[in-house]
Amino acid sequence: MAETATTRRSRITPEREAELYTAVLDLLREVGYDALTMDAVATRTRSSKATLYRQWGGKAELVARAMRFMKPGRAADVDTGSLRGDLHSLVAREDDCVMEQNSALMRGLAMAVHGNPDLLKAFRELLVEPEIAEFKQVLQRAVDRGEVREDNPALDYMMHMLIGAFAARTMIDELPPTQAFLASYIDAVVIPALSA
Questions:
Q1: What local confidence, expressed as pLDDT, does residue 71 receive?
Q2: Is the pLDDT of residue 3 over 70?
Q3: CA dist., res. 119 & res. 36, Å (int)
Q4: How far apart are CA 31 and CA 156, in angstroms?
Q5: Which of 7, 8, 141, 153 is deepest in the core (most CB within 10 A)?
Q6: Span 50-65, mean pLDDT?
Q7: SS3 157
Q8: pTM of the predicted model, to two decimals?
Q9: Could you tell me if 133 and 125 are in contact, meaning their C-beta atoms sit under 8 angstroms apart?
Q10: What pLDDT score does 10 carry?
């Protein structure tokens, strides 16, 4: 699938692709996944619907790729020399305003994923699995440096901990996630769990 998608998108410039992804994210924030249509994306981006389908195959893949585009770089590229430094650096890549917008967007998409197998599949293949693979590289470096034992059971729950903090902040505290909150969560929960 990834090879076909890359081949399909090769005709679009990186600038045009960024413009399309930004428009998709704007539309998602305005109307949500269920009400988002390829017609609306085509109109917003001055594209033909046929071009969108040819390049991305459908709404689910387009949305998942737009969400991946939104990510501020690869987690695996961050290497400060310590796990704590890496995690704090990752949190610092998005300011609080962007984090709040992304949190709202992710909550809406989390609901849509449950009723849409195509979106779930696209998210797993294009977002979840690549993110897990990148975080495994960050954690492996920590293991190689001797910061984390290789047999520490918390390693398997790293993504759960971080996503849980991000999501629970709104549900429990009725506040958006912030850099300060996530940094304190990393220091209070994640690092102690991985260092145990």
A1: 83
A2: no
A3: 13
A4: 35
A5: 141
A6: 92
A7: helix
A8: 0.80
A9: no
A10: 52
Distance between CA atoms of residues 104 and 29, nearest Å: 8
d(CA 134, CA 172): 28
pLDDT at residue 7 is higher than 70:
no
* Residue 149 per-residue DSSP state: -
C-alpha to C-alpha distance for 107 and 190, rounded to whole angstroms: 22
Query: What's the rounded Cα separation, in Å, for the pair 185 and 86?
Result: 14
Q: How far is C-alpha 169 from the chain's CA centre?
A: 17
Backbone angles phi, psi at 123, to 5 degrees: -65, -45
Cα separation, 95 vs 8, in Å, equals: 33
Rounded Cα distance between 124 and 131, Å, is 10
Query: pLDDT at residue 136 above 60?
Result: yes
**One-letter identity of residue 173:** D
**Tokens 């940094």 sit on residue:** 183
Q: Which two tokens stand for residue 131?
A: 């993110």
Distances (CA, A) of 94 to 31, 71, 90, 101, 177: 24, 9, 8, 11, 11
Spatial CB neighbours of 18, under 8 Å, sequence gap ≥ 6: 69
pLDDT tens by residue, 147-191: 999 999 999 999 999 988 988 898 899 899 999 999 999 999 999
Rounded to a whole number of angstroms, the distance between the first and last alpha carbons of the chain is: 40
